[in-house]
Amino acid sequence: MKLRPIIAAAVCTFTLSPALAFAQDQPWLKDRRYTEGIGIRAGDLELHPGVAAEFGYDSNFFRRAEDDVIDSLDRGPVGSMRLRITPSFSLSTLSRQRLEVTPDAPPPDVEFRGGIAATYEEFFPVSGTETGQDRLSDQRNIGGLLDASLTILPRRPWSVVLDGSLGRTIASSDLGISNQSFRRIHANAGAELVWTPGGGLLDWRLGYRFLGTFFEVDEFSGLTNLHHSIRTRGRWRFLPRTALIYDASLGFVDYPNPTSQLSSHPLRAQIGINGLVTPSFGLLAMAGWGASFYTAEGQVDAVNDFDSVIGQLELKWFLTPNPSADPEAATLALSSLSAGFTRDFHDSYLWTYYERNRGYLKLTYFFGGRFLLIADGGVAAIVYPGAPETPSLVAEPSWTDVRIDASLFGEYRITDALGINSTIRYGNNVSSTALTARGVDGNVENHLGWQQFEAYLGVRWFM
Q1: How far is residue 57 from each of residues 71, 157, 334, 384, 455, measured CA to CA in Å?
Q2: Mean pLDDT for all residues in the chain
Q3: Which of 11-20, 44-53, 344-353 has the highest mean predicted lDDT (pLDDT)?
Q4: How far apart (Å, rounded) are the C-alpha atoms in residues 218 and 196?
Q5: pTM
């Protein structure tokens, strides 16, 4: 059986994520503390070139269920060996570490940081149907990310922060059944005005951000969306190590050519505390309210909206006590153990939204400047409010999936510029739900449960 393109777009959805997806598979690309070495000084700039290669196994790139049928020649998961090659380069104005040579010098008028990275991916299928293996081989492609940020008058009573990025993501659908990845371009740009009066006990920020996701394949063009948001956030340090924080945003999400997707105006407002209870223990507690405000002109059926509590609670133990009195500096400590819980909602490409309630544990350990270990895992309840009856999809009442994720990344730095690493990752979407799409030759069921195991060995050179 073959699905018409519009049916595939409706069924093979990829849920929206607030973070850019390009670096999700490689932990050292997420955080410049791990990506960069000492760098090369060129006048008032620091240069950080690097290159990495990884080779390993991916059991289910398409994230299909065992019972998924794409057509008469392709069904179920496809496993493969996977090669990734990633060159990267970043540059910035001189870091504070280098500026400590003259600690009494005034702060610079501007601070700049920019970077570029690209990842070439090649697949060597080893299991699954012959047609599925051919389709996976065709997924070889290049993803990448270009980003930059500029701070004008940093560490002054008034400052301005400008940032932007452009990325290309090569990834699969969270709900499986597709025979290709969802290639898409992410555009991200923002501006923020920062007010920090007096000695820095108070800071307040007001900003605007644009997020655009553009799908390259015509059959998924209905998922292309534009997201504008206005955000204000602030921090008041009322104790030497503890700050009261506030965060609120109003968004405007639009789908220029929707299939079944709805525009919305998501609103979030949270207040909480962030601080060091002792030099070894930190606490982050945020609570507030979120509402989705979907618009459905001419829609016959009632629209499901999220309207409930959101927040985050995290306890963190610093394996090396943090000497700083700045509560924000707690996030910079490299060795720590965290336990937390988050509750929030996000737009879904399947009708309206999904609610996410996730508990997690994370260990980050950096020993002797040579060995880095990052262990991260969580269990989340993903609540879908239901899918309506459409010309391509049979109605489905509300359901809840359980998402299990775990990853382990370790890197040993042979020298200050060369490291060998290993990544192990496991994902499991526990679901008894099957969405039913109307196909040309009859209805087709898409089972939402899937498992994926990945393991890679790699080497990385960085400056």
Answers
A1: 25, 51, 29, 31, 5
A2: 84
A3: 44-53
A4: 47
A5: 0.85
Cβ partners under 8 Å of residue 445, min gap 6: 67, 69, 434, 435, 436, 437
Residues 6+ apart with CB under 8 A from 391: 438
Q: Could you give the CA distance from residue 329 to residue 325 in angstroms, rounded to a whole number?
A: 8
Asked whether the beta carbons of 463 and 47 are under 8 A apart, the reply is yes
Partners of 45 in the β-ladder: 42, 93
CB 14 within 8 A of CB 410: no
What tokens does 219 get? Answer: 């059959």
Over the stretch 204-251, which tens digit does the pLDDT of each residue have? Answer: 999 999 999 998 887 778 889 999 999 999 999 988 889 999 999 999
By the 10 Å C-beta count (0-12 exposed, 13-18 middle, 19+ buried), 391 is classed as exposed
Contact 447, 4 (CB under 8 A): no
Three-state SS at 397? coil
Q: Which residues contact 145 (CB under 8 A, 6 or more apart)?
A: 20, 22, 23, 29, 115, 116, 117, 118, 165, 166, 167, 168
Residue 317 — pLDDT band, cuts 50, 70, 90? very high
